[in-house]
From TrEMBL:
Transmembrane segments: none annotated. The keyword Transferase applies. The keyword RNA-binding does not apply. InterPro entries: Amdntrnsf_FN0238. It holds the Pfam family DDAH_eukar. Keywords: Transferase. GO terms for molecular function: transferase activity. It comes from the Bacteria. This is Amidinotransferase. SUPFAM superfamilies: Pentein.
Length: 311
């Protein structure tokens, strides 16, 4: 199984803003005072367009889907939370914590992929779990080591343990389960998505091990990564707050590998960390300040990787 892909889907926002329904447990969101909603959305669109341009310039196959004003979907820019695409032709649809995020799931996006020649053999639909208040938010909650058949998950109100195990059984992954925390006003609170504290590449992992408060769990996670010969690049909680954990390794033209991140993530890294990362792939960064502040997500969240077979 491949760990990286050249094909991604990105959703261009039309009504981006801070989502009040996700702010209850996403402590990375901020209110940008004094900005009209239209200004926030315009800034997000500018950041989005510049990001897409940078990805396409190095040969990444980006399918851009326009969001629609028919639904109130302020977080549609983060498609990786509701869908994942797999090499066996299967698509997984995930149950979402925020009610207004459930409307992001659009079947027409799957049609667009099929028109591009991607093959979809089956849809694994976990969304009925929403009725029971159970959530698992795609590759926000799941860090998939596709090549080694492992899935890492930091449990949270948006990542249910039983449903995670069910996903692992369905897709043949060995589950690696832990809890990750961040400091909020002097309290340790669960990090809402695994992908803000961890990024898994083909030959490396970026991880904030300090966020795993339980020492046994931390040791278990790091031992799993070492067993698969990943170079472990440790980041701090301050760097997590700059979205340094929210990176993604993808492929451009001629299969060249890139580690994609935001400018704020890039600027938060030390020279040593940058050198470590660059020994694995070239860094590609883009300014996502508005999207990060209002959305509480960054570069990785904006890209849904497509691993489907092509006919």
């Amino acid at each position: 199984m491949k760990q990286t892909t050249n094909s991604i889907i990105m959703i261009r926002p039309v009504a981006f803003r801070m989502n009040e329904q996700t702010a209850v447990n996403n402590y990375y969101q901020k209110v940008l005072d004094g900005l009209l909603p239209s200004t926030v959305n315009a800034k997000a669109q500018q950041e989005f367009d510049a990001f897409v341009e940078k990805l396409r310039a190095v040969g990444v196959d980006v399918t851009v889907i326009e969001d629609t004003l028919e639904t109130d979907t302020p977080d549609s820019i983060f498609p990786n939370n509701w869908v994942s695409f797999h090499e066996n032709g299967e698509v997984a649809l995930y149950p979402m914590f925020a009610e207004n995020r459930r409307q992001e799931r659009r079947e027409d996006i799957l049609d667009v992929l099929e028109e591009k020649g991607f093959e979809i053999s089956d849809i694994m639909d976990y969304t009925s779990a929403e009725e029971d208040g159970i959530f698992l938010e795609g590759t926000g909650s799941l860090i998939l080591d596709r090549a080694n058949g492992k899935a890492y998950c930091a449990l949270s109100p948006r990542a249910d343990e039983e449903l995670f195990i069910e996903f692992c059984e369905d897709f043949d992954y060995a589950p690696v389960i832990f809890e990750a925390f961040q400091s909020v006003d002097g309290e340790r609170k669960l990090i809402y998505h695994t992908n803000v504290m961890m990024c898994l590449g083909e030959t490396f992992v970026v991880i904030c091990a300090d966020s795993i408060d339980d020492k046994k769990e931390r040791k278990m996670v790091l031992e799993n990564l070492k067993a698969d010969n990943k170079e472990i690049i440790l980041i701090t909680e301050a760097q997590v707050n700059n979205f340094a954990g929210n990176m993604l390794e993808i492929r451009g033209a001629n299969d060249k590998k890139y580690i994609v991140m935001s400018t704020s993530a890039h600027q938060s890294l030390t020279e040593k960390q940058i050198t470590q990362l660059e020994s694995h792939a070239e860094i590609l960064s883009s300014s996502l300040d508005t999207i990060e502040a209002c959305g509480g997500g960054s570069a990785r969240c904006m890209m849904a990787e497509v691993f489907l077979p092509k006919n």
